[in-house]
Amino acid sequence: MSMMYFTFCTTFMLGIMGLTFHRTHLLSALLCLEGMMLSLFIALSFWVVKFETLTHSSLPLIMLTFSACEASVGLALMVATTRTHGSDKLKNLNLLQC
């Protein structure tokens, strides 16, 4: 296993572990998701450089665009839940209520 592959797998797994074990605030969950997307973006960028494929050279840019859209939607949801519930704690959110 190469060092680069190990680094990408480790950063992605750290994001998953942070998402599963530290779910007290919505902001921390969003940061873990953003870290996972960033590790995937860097891995995809290095994959394009390593194999020198011109047909897939736009994939990292498209993924970065979707990651930015995901971050903006997540922050908008966090602002909306903070205004309605008073905090961003995930324990206070009940998805079954209207």
UniProtKB/TrEMBL annotation:
<comment type="similarity">
    <text>Belongs to the complex I subunit 4L family.</text>
</comment>
<keyword id="KW-0520">NAD</keyword>
<protein>
    <recommendedName>
        <fullName>NADH-ubiquinone oxidoreductase chain 4L</fullName>
        <ecNumber>7.1.1.2</ecNumber>
    </recommendedName>
</protein>
<keyword id="KW-1133">Transmembrane helix</keyword>
<keyword id="KW-0249">Electron transport</keyword>
<keyword id="KW-0496">Mitochondrion</keyword>
<dbReference type="GO" id="GO:0008137">
    <property type="term" value="F:NADH dehydrogenase (ubiquinone) activity"/>
</dbReference>
<keyword id="KW-0812">Transmembrane</keyword>
<dbReference type="Pfam" id="PF00420">
    <property type="entry name" value="Oxidored_q2"/>
</dbReference>
<keyword id="KW-1278">Translocase</keyword>
<dbReference type="GO" id="GO:0098803">
    <property type="term" value="C:respiratory chain complex"/>
</dbReference>
<dbReference type="GO" id="GO:1902495">
    <property type="term" value="C:transmembrane transporter complex"/>
</dbReference>
<feature type="transmembrane region" description="Helical">
    <location>
        <begin position="28"/>
        <end position="49"/>
    </location>
</feature>
<dbReference type="GO" id="GO:0042773">
    <property type="term" value="P:ATP synthesis coupled electron transport"/>
</dbReference>
<keyword id="KW-0679">Respiratory chain</keyword>
<dbReference type="GO" id="GO:0005743">
    <property type="term" value="C:mitochondrial inner membrane"/>
</dbReference>
<comment type="function">
    <text>Core subunit of the mitochondrial membrane respiratory chain NADH dehydrogenase (Complex I) which catalyzes electron transfer from NADH through the respiratory chain, using ubiquinone as an electron acceptor. Part of the enzyme membrane arm which is embedded in the lipid bilayer and involved in proton translocation.</text>
</comment>
<keyword id="KW-0472">Membrane</keyword>
<dbReference type="InterPro" id="IPR001133">
    <property type="entry name" value="NADH_UbQ_OxRdtase_chain4L/K"/>
</dbReference>
<keyword id="KW-0830">Ubiquinone</keyword>
<dbReference type="InterPro" id="IPR039428">
    <property type="entry name" value="NUOK/Mnh_C1-like"/>
</dbReference>
<keyword id="KW-0813">Transport</keyword>
<feature type="transmembrane region" description="Helical">
    <location>
        <begin position="61"/>
        <end position="80"/>
    </location>
</feature>
<keyword id="KW-0999">Mitochondrion inner membrane</keyword>
<dbReference type="GO" id="GO:0030964">
    <property type="term" value="C:NADH dehydrogenase complex"/>
</dbReference>
<dbReference type="GO" id="GO:0016651">
    <property type="term" value="F:oxidoreductase activity, acting on NAD(P)H"/>
</dbReference>
